[in-house]
């Protein structure tokens, strides 16, 4: 997603000390209250869903409900606050949900169809800058039918709409405690999620306690969670090692992940599980630049980049090579760039340039941001420079700026080549194709490709069975390969490290890579 905070290696680590005493707790929990302390560098920027399109989702998933959500192991939205949801037409333009009976907010107010309508309408009415209103571009209006039915009328077919409703940005709020015209800023939350926000101190901690009135899909394995916020990763790792916190998620560098992996050999109480993440990194080429605008130059770079060396040297294996804009683990993933270019080959790159009449080394400037994607970004671009210049076919100048000025620069079209990252809003191939094409491409430069925007994507959005549209997404990815306006480099990995006395770490991340705190629990202590 465009505004979400970035990470070098997304990670969740749990290394929990045993409680004093013997045999107090069972594997599935016990009558003794279970409390977990989690550390993170992923502090929320807001507590109001109408303003949240960033790492604030981490907290919101645990204290709010959405109509549908992603239980662990599910790659499609399933009911949460809703009893059921479905498209009621054949063109995916009318989406209807029945609200689960007996729901109420933490202030005691009823959670009914009107509350759902209010929650979604205020997002579109407030239109918070940098907020999630852009996700509702296909929404025409919200209609209620009685107390328990809500209908979303769309302006055009959009089979991805249920995925959007499953994001924490679409969390349901109590109308009496949230203004229709402005963001709530009192540091409190009125939701209906698995936990209640007992207290919140910005920059320090959030105290969550089990919501006794919760009705939804979450099977809570603990009774309370303290989330402690850290500015940097080193202090949170130190706190973990000293048992001052029980778990870490978000914010570890590749070096720290490797260090903790190595520690497994020395400390039998620490184990790490690796899974595939969905965040990606890629290069963007400016079509108006004299050099980068030449497709032969772009194809020669695609022929030279050694992704294996990049992830091995810079990320020490905490990422993996990516050969399409749709990452591994997402339906429709292909290896289209590898199919087109194979292994890095200087001879083939030289031929590509020669056919275009380019016989001298191509001079290009590569730009990257210094403060958004972590400390490994500079070494990553140094490695790209080394690879391209070692071929003798390119001369690369590296330049960088802080994110704010970097963003201003690429939206004005100032950079020939620059690096970007993408954190998905939802686990569907649409979210890895649509944001990059059209007049409003998130690259800051229009990428007009009618076959994708006017034919392939509209076709896929008519089909609620996402497995039935793989051919369209394969074709879209092939178009991106032919143009090489975007060059995928790598996708991140997720790590779960835990002590032998902790369970649930392998289930704690949903398909949006958002932390589900309720999955963590202490095993038996002897």
UniProtKB/TrEMBL annotation:
Xref: PROSITE patterns: PROKAR_LIPOPROTEIN
Source taxon at top rank: Bacteria
Coiled coil: none
Key words, A-Z: Signal, Transport
Phylogenetic classification of the source organism: Bacteria, Bacillati, Actinomycetota, Actinomycetes, Kitasatosporales
Similarity-based family: Belongs to the bacterial solute-binding protein 5 family.
InterPro entries found in the cross-reference section: Peptide/Ni-bd, SBP_5, SBP_5_dom
Native source species: Streptomyces pulveraceus
Signal sequence annotation: 1-20
Subcellular location: Cell envelope
Name by which UniProt lists this protein: ABC transporter substrate-binding protein
